[in-house]
Structures are given as C-alpha cells and as structure tokens.
Amino acid sequence: MMKQLMILDEAFQTLNEGRKLINHTLDFEIPYWKEKSQKVHINIQITDRWLTVVIAILLMIIGLQWWIPQNKSTTQLDNMLVQMPNRNSILPASLPASKPINDVFSYIMKHLDENKNEIPQTHQEQRDNFLVQKQLLLTKYLIENKASRLDKLSDDKLLSLNQEITQLFIDLVLNNVNAQKHVYSYFTNNTDLNKIETSLMEQAKFHVPASIKLAQSALETAYGQRIVDNNYFGIKDKAQKSSLTTTTEYYTVSEMKANRSIIISSKRVIKNGKILYKCIVKDHFAEYNSPWHSFRSHSVFLSTNKRYSPLFTKGKNYEDWADKIGSTKYGGVGYATSPIYGEILKKIIKRYHLDLLDF
Q1: What are the distances in angstroms from CA 46 to CA 20, 37, 49?
Q2: Cβ count near 331 (within 10 Å)
Q3: What is residue 247's predicted lDDT score, i.e. its pLDDT?
Q4: Which band of pLDDT confidence, cut at 50, 70 and 90, is reported for residue 88?
Q5: How far apart are CA 195 and CA 189, in angstroms?
Q6: Percent of the chain's residues with pLDDT above 90
Q7: By three-state DSSP, how is residue 285 classified?
Q8: Axis-axis angle for helices 341-352, 104-114 (nearest 10)
Q9: Closest CA to 297 of 230, 197, 226
Q10: What sign does the dihedral 318-213-78-313 (CA atoms) show?
Q11: 90: which of 100, 179, 227, 239 fits an S-S bond (Cβ 3.0–4.6 Å)?
C-alpha cells in the first residue's frame, strides 16, 4: 500500500506543476500536407473542478489495483469461487484465545489416536454405493456434453459436476463417519470456501489428488483451528516479506542444525518410534488474500516446482503420494520435514474416506 501512496503523491505534485505550466496561452505549429504549417493559438486552463475529476480517477485506479487479486492463472469461474479476505488467525469459540494451537502436528496425532477405536458407520457397501453414484454422474456429464475426458468439460459444467459430487460425498459418506463437530464443519462449512468442491476443481486442473489436498489442509490447520493469513498448507515465504509467525516443527538432528537460525527452543521427543526434536520456530509464511488463493497457490506450488515432480509420477494413488511427500531423509521430496508426515496424511484420508474423491 505504501508504494501506491507514493505513486499518488507524485501524481499530485505532477498535476500541480502541470497546472502552473499550462494555465497559459500556448502556440503550436501544426504541419499540413506539402510541408505547410500554420500557427494555432490555444488557451488551456485546468480548473479545480477538472483537477478533482483527475484525482478521483487516479484514486479509483489505485484502489482497484490494490484490492483486485493479482493472479494471471485465474479464470472468470475461479474468481467466482474467491471469498472475501480474512487475514486473521481463526480460533474456535471453545478454544481460549490465550492458548492457540501452535503444534498442529501433535494435535492431529492426538485427535487420530483418541478416535482410533471409533467404528465408523460407513462400511464397504456404502463406499461402493458412493463410487457407483459418482461414476453415474461422471458418465452423465461426459455423454451430455459429448466429452471424452473431464478436462474437456467447460468450466461451468465442471463446477456443476463438482457441486453434485460434493453433496453426494456429504450425504453418503461424511454424514456417516461419526466425525467430531469441528472436523465435520471443516469439511462441509462453505462460509469462506467450499473446500471439497475447490479440491475437486484443482484436481481436474492441476492433477493434485483431492484427498491429498484436503488431508494436507486439515493437518496444517488442525481442521481449521489455526489458520494464519489464509495459509492452509504451511507454505513458507521465501522472500521473507511477511511477518514472523511462531510454529512448532519436528526435525531430525541434521534438519535441526540446518534450521538453527529460526529455532527458539528444542526438545528431544520420540514420535512413532523415531527420535525427533520438537522445535519452536519463528519463520516467514506466505500470506493470501483469501482461502481460495491458498488452495490455488498449493496446486501451482506442487505442479511447477521440479522438486515435487516425482509426486506426479504416482498417478492418483493417495498412498504413493503420501509416502513420497515427506522428509527427504526417508526418501521423500521434502514438502515436510517430519518423517511421519505421510503416515498422518494417510490416517486422515482413511478416517474420513477422502480417497473416494480421487479420480
């Protein structure tokens, strides 16, 4: 915003100087055909009224430049999905403001452990029912629109299909998994963003499995209980232009040494039989104008970064994606440092049957 204000100030100064210079009678020589010329006297005056109009136009242009999201890869349909920005941390009403969830990783592990003995009402028969109904929808849209593949559907048809699949998934699956209230709300509440619908759209456009996107966003935000600056995927700000944010990371010895500049404190712990160091760190994380921009940025981040290209050789198998996305120390591409990051993703996906959304 400071840059826009400086530009506006310079514009005001230029207008005032210009006003002084051209509030006079000016002589112009206007060339005519056959190299003839004629002097024309023009009297130009800039009144306060016209100066106000010019300033108003400048303010409107700068305002639009500031508020409209700058994303050249968006389409008109994408912009329809963008919700109003909310750049503040989101905490549930039941969670004391003095105790924000900084360690989302431990929170998710505890949550899954507490619910491991729950017996979901969704059985194989219900999974099969959803898959059959989903396939019927896919076939219907392809036939009606004379398309051979989903990526051949127009954006509005694809959106309509994704909306129907989303509702089908909620009705036949999520309503039968005994999810805790805040978990169910995270996947189904569309106040800021319809996460399932958006994940399906991103899957069609960027080939990132919807199950992986939803599981990562759930893990990185503790099912929406810690969202800072609309960052749903823990993506760092390499330019370090954002403010510092305190988080908890789990490092190996070598990773702890490599990140010592951002570590405030560390503690040796054992997670799933592996020796790790629980570190409180302060680092720069990406900031987004809306939740949708975070979901789109995640797709672009994975699909355009050579480091993550091995993920796209795994097809649509979420287990292969989860196994490959973790720590480089254990053969992963290094999206996350934790050696059990992939295992947690798989547990979330299995617990809520998110793999049914992959196609």
Answers
A1: 9, 28, 8
A2: 11
A3: 82
A4: very low
A5: 8
A6: 40
A7: strand
A8: 40
A9: 230
A10: negative
A11: 227
Q: Of 59-73, 201-215, 241-255, where does mean pLDDT reach its minimum?
A: 59-73
Measured CA to CA, the distance from residue 255 to residue 266 in angstroms comes to 12
Q: Which two tokens stand for residue 33?
A: 């055909």
The secondary element (H helix, E strand) that includes residue 226 is none
Handedness of CA 341, 134, 115, 178 (dihedral sign): positive
Q: What is the pLDDT of residue 261?
A: 87
Tokens of 28: 């112009």
SS3 273: coil
Q: Identify whether the C-beta of residue 325 lies closer than 8 Å to the C-beta of residue 345.
A: yes
The amino acid present at 356, given as its one-letter code, is: L
Alpha-carbon 150 to chain mean position: 23
Both tokens of 277, joined, read 């160091």
Tokens of 89: 């941390």
The single residue listed with the structure tokens 């809520």 is 352
- Domain spans of the chain, in order of start: 2-67, 78-227+302-325+340-357
d(CA 279, CA 262): 9
Strand-strand pairing, 244-251 and 25-31: unpaired
* Cβ pair 233, 275 in contact under 8 A: no
Rounded CA gap, 262 and 241, in Å?
Answer: 15
pTM for this one?
A: 0.69
11 pLDDT higher than 70: no
Rg of the chain over Cα atoms, rounded to whole angstroms, equals 27
The amino acid at residue 207 is H
What letter represents residue 297's amino acid?
S
Work out the pLDDT band at 271, boundaries 50, 70, 90.
confident
